[in-house]
Amino acid sequence: RFGMRRIVIYIAGTKGGVGKSFAAIMLAGAAMDLELPYLVFDTDSENRTVSELLKGNTEFLDELQEHYPLDSVVNCLYSDSPAQVIIVDMKAGTSRTTQEWFSSVPWDFIRKTQVDVYVAGCITSDPDSVRTFIPWLDYFRKIDFPVRYLIFKNEKDGKEFPICTLKLEPAMRKLKLQYTEFRFPAIEQEYINLLNNNNLTLRDHVHGKNDKILPTIMQKSRLRNHYFSMTDQILEFFASRMEASELTGIRAMLVEATRKRIAFRKGELIEESGSEEENNAGTSKKQSKGN
């Protein structure tokens, strides 16, 4: 296997309602935009949000039907699956059963499979979202494997994350735990309701599927900006893991357009390279293909 190392992302089963399924869908959306083969495992037996919205590349793991449903995640690493990005949406709550399962994972064998393992935590302004993530940190610190972390700061309840900023992040730095931070700006509830009622993901709508659910150009533009403000961060993260030989043609133009948008939001200027038509080619191609 050449090029980008495979990546497995366990979205930790922290407090419910913090955006775990949404993070899984946005990760999958960024992978689709980069044309990275992906696979999502949905373990949330209460909602099945991911399974319902992402058809095709999603497998629902039913703990009521199988003794060890999470076995499928590890088994796929030893199968012929082409997936380079494997996303596991864990159900809310950290159970002893889940930790017992992780203790059975053959980490020594996984070291030989050219795969990186990430544990993602979804954090809101609610202190409980941090407190329920900490047991996952404690558990994976005991595993003899270089686990990395992703922190999704979901601004749905506010832009301040005092417990995370004052306690969690300093502790992670002190323990030398490698982590990457993403920020998800809040989306108006009316848009969320429209998407859910039409069984659409944010990416579906932005890439042309049923784009008539929003009647005005400003509403469509606002939702498009929401999408890019979130997936640009993830797309750049994926691109940073890819070999130069993989970032050519349409992919290269897509990444360049992504980095320009990120710089624009930060108030930075970057040198122009290529025409406006070239810089928009990646998005145009995706829109023509749809989902």
Provide an overview of this structure.
With 291 residues, this protein is of the alpha/beta class. It is 45% helix and 14% strand. The protein contains 14 helices and seven strands. It has helices at residues 20-33, 49-53, 71-75, 96-104, 107-110, 127-131, 134-141, 162-174, 189-197, 202-206, 217-240, 249-265, 276-279, 281-289, and strands spanning 6-11, 38-42, 58-60, 85-89, 115-123, 148-154, 179-184. Strands 3-2-4-1-5-6-7 form a seven-stranded parallel beta sheet. Strand 2 (38-42), helix 2 and strand 3 form a beta-alpha-beta unit. Helix 11 crosses helix 12 (249-265). The longest helix is centred in the last third of the chain and has 24 residues, at 217-240. The two termini are 27 Å apart. Residues 275-279 and 281-291 have low confidence and may be disordered.
The succession of helices and strands, N to C, reads: EHEHEHEHHEHHEHEHHHHHH
The major beta sheet can be summarized as: 7 strands, parallel
Average the pLDDT over all residues and give the rounded result. Answer: 85
Strand content: 5-15%
Spatial gap, N to C terminus: 27 Å
Strand order of the largest sheet: 3-2-4-1-5-6-7
Task: Compute the CA-based radius of gyration.
Answer: 19 Å
Q: Quick one: how many beta strands? A: 7
